Amino acid sequence: MSSNYLFQSVQPQGANVPAEINSISTEETPKLFTPITCKSVTFRNRIVVPPMCMYSSTDGFLNDYHVAHYGSFALKRPAMVIIEATAVEARGRISAHDSGIWSDDHIAPLRRVVNVLKSQGTVAAIQIAHAGRKANMGTSWMPGGYHNLSEQEGGWPTDVVGPSELAFDEIHANPNALSISELKDLVQKWADAAIRANKAGIDVLEIHSAHGYLLHNFLSGNSNKRTDQYGGSLENRLRFPLEVARAVRNVWPQEKPLWVRLSGTDFENPEILGHDETGWDVYQSIEYAKALKEIGVDVIDVSSGGNLPNVKYPVGKLYQVPLSNAIKHKANIATGAVGIITEPKEAEEILQKEEADFILVGREHLRDPAWTNRAASELGVHVKWINQYERANRRPKL
């Protein structure tokens, strides 16, 4: 891997073999299970559980459910688990049941989850977020389903915000355009959230800049109709997200990695690598990634879509990998690939082809929390199971 990434591959052989991994193959250890170091953090493999909203908090507080949920992944040996989108202010929640980090009171419950992850040698990460114009929605399995919450339901329908007074669609709230002073206050809230995450013991921080939420709202001309210094040209649309990234990097410890998740395209043009110069496309994403790298961001977590309703997505196996590949090589920055990556051999191929540096496996981990163990078995690697589960491991001992 290029030294420009500030990463160091750790070859699992001889004295460098981590206690939890040994290869049973005479061939080189698969990249998926080759440790890698970034700054102060060593990842025992390249498998990451990405942030997936659980909509199970009250007033932003994590609880026993989250301890069990995240702990179940940590027991099965992925390198890192990213705790779900966690709001930097109360009105920045997607739903009334999102997790939050806008108060110092949120630190202790978060630390409980962090301690569980770290107790199993798993890197603890969190995604800090603001839902922007897609805030204040009900949860699909709760009464009323996915709808714009009323105040009687615990919502804030008149306090949803975005770059412009442009609703996502007819069932979302009409947002208020943020003033310049409000933008400055929000930058500080992101920085404060990063400080709290560090106090909770988080190893890796991710800024959520994707899926039609606030930072993505500013990036895309499809949702940003401002005529001031925060709208119009690409330089102007990048301004607020970069101010947030810079403020976070300034308070986040320099020895700890910083990730950013972005949507590589809005899919206004159905071609995944197509042009949408007035909206948002992969070419603008590359410029954004270059600017983030200059600020000190270490990894771009590449997703797509979420900013426009009624868009046809080219959904299929590995469909977002071309975006990761383009950003990785054009911006010369490490990337994470996500999106219907379900088979270990496909994950390994992505790494071998240098289309990404990390593999984020989301819903497949919900279906199979032991996906890392399955991947090891299929790729011919012996991964040390936790002692309590070792008697169930049918792989031959070394």
TrEMBL record:
Keyword list, A-Z: Flavoprotein, FMN, NADP, Oxidoreductase
Domain of life, source organism: Eukaryota
CDD domains linked: OYE_YqiM_FMN
A GO molecular-function descriptor: NADP binding
Cofactor names: FMN
Cross-referenced InterPro entries: Aldolase_TIM, OxRdtase_FMN_N, YqjM-like
Domain (NADH:flavin oxidoreductase/NADH oxidase N-terminal) ranges: 31-379
One Pfam family from the record: Oxidored_FMN
Protein name: NADH:flavin oxidoreductase/NADH oxidase N-terminal domain-containing protein
